[in-house]
Amino acid sequence: MDSIKSIQKGAEMKYQPDTSFRFIAIQSPAAAKDPTTRRLARSHAIKQAIRAKRELQERQNAKSPSITHESPHNKTAGSPSSTTSALSPSSKLFDLQTIDASRLKALIKQNSERQAAEPVFSLQEDVVEFQAFESVFLTGVDDPALLNAVMLTFALGVTDGNINQECLGYLNRATKSIRERMDRPENAASVAVIGAILLLAGVEARLGMRSQVQLHMKAIHQLLQLCSDENIYLNGSIKRAIFWQDLNCAVIAGSPRLFDHTTFVELEWRRDPFTPNFYTLSPGFRARAHLFPDEFIRVLEDTHALQCIRDSPNFGCRDTGEMMRYDSHQGSVQSRLVDLPKDSLFLECCYLAIYISACQLCSKAWKALAIPGHLSTVLLEKLRQADINGVWDDDPDLFLWLLYTGGAYLSTGPTRSAYIALINQKLSYGFGSPYKSMPTVLRIFKMFVWSGEAFSAEVERFWAETNKTQLGTYDRE
């Protein structure tokens, strides 16, 4: 804490106000109260303060290192193979005086090994450029608010969402720093502060702190308005981070959404007119189209296009432009799903399964989020409720697809075991032996949502576990 205070104090001592002034004439005391005059004065003051701050940051940029992503293609013989992210001596991540560098490095390594993730930025090896830390924040963690928010996110990632004393320390310091910055708008209007607030909101969503999530997302909204008023540039990656964090907080914590897939032009997405055959219903959904509202049918068609693109031989995870479009495509699908009216348990289960499927169709960074696991737990509860009411009695194929979609992508644990128990119960008493065949499971999946590239390994492992067999002992199609 003392070291952070000393850095803040040092920054204040180094700060030199800009000597250029703009004269605003005031002809009378009443004019001083004029809204336009007051806004001009405030705008000028904020712009000058931001300009001075940026000049200070530019002078300090060379003094601190950053998070770098170690690509398998860039490793040298002497580079450590156990770490997917490293601290580069010439990077801009953090000021060594403000934090224990070895602790940060350890947390980065642990998060990478556990494939912990959240939607603001990613540490995954196969991450494309727009998801990388430097692309989102355009700087290192030389801001105390962002620094502590990053450390909190990393620390929580290795405790399975349990707040310990270390997490509390980062949380308190980040909150204090953000509060101080929000008291002075010229200090708050920055990508670093927006990023810090987004990270705090993500932590609070995982902890079920809905009111705090709302508070912080409203602060983001205010900062965006300030940046717009003062013509402060925000890069596309931070806007994507805002959209995804807002959506994920709504899904996990139930907070009201302030942003959607139409908010930022950087996330605008339309169907590709050159691949019209992609945007169609799969056979299973086509046969049940009369059960779905029109907007959900369009979402199903767009999800089918996602899987077609994912399985395309030309699909490249490292092409930034391609992945940004794919990311916007996914965002449109999931954003619309969340907004659809939940008129029945049947529809809710279908919405949840499509959302989970869309998560699995994308990069490892998104598959590792807490969202799919959270939705699988919700889906299990909804499936049980609907089963009690006999909803699935006349449609065992759809029920089997829903059960496998909910259970196959989970890590080992109580929820996965509960899915297996429910499948075995229904297979034994309701469906009959044909549904225990792996080829039958694959046939059913292909009727609804299927990607061999994204789904096959998890589905096959889940089938083997469900049937208490070893992989490779069944006849493949």
Mean pLDDT over the full residue set: 77
Total of domains: 2
Distance, first to last CA:
61 Å
Q: Poorly predicted ranges (pLDDT <50, ≥5 residues)? A: 1-32, 60-98, 469-477
Organism: Hypocrea atroviridis (strain ATCC 20476 / IMI 206040) (Trichoderma atroviride)
Biased composition (Low complexity): 75-89
Region (Disordered): 54-89
Protein name: Transcription factor domain-containing protein
What's the helix and strand layout?
Blueprint: H1 2-14, H2 35-60, E1 67-69, E2 85-87, H3 101-113, H4 133-137, H5 144-157, H6 165-182, H7 185-188, H8 191-206, H9 210-229, H10 236-253, H11 283-286, H12 294-310, H13 320-339, H14 345-361, H15 364-367, H16 370-388, H17 396-407, H18 414-431, H19 438-447, H20 452-466
Antiparallel strand pairs: 1-2
Helix pairs in contact: 3-5, 5-6, 5-8, 6-8, 8-9, 8-10, 9-10, 10-13, 12-13, 12-14, 13-14, 14-16, 16-17, 17-18
Region (Disordered): 54-89
Organism: Hypocrea atroviridis (strain ATCC 20476 / IMI 206040)
Protein name: Transcription factor domain-containing protein
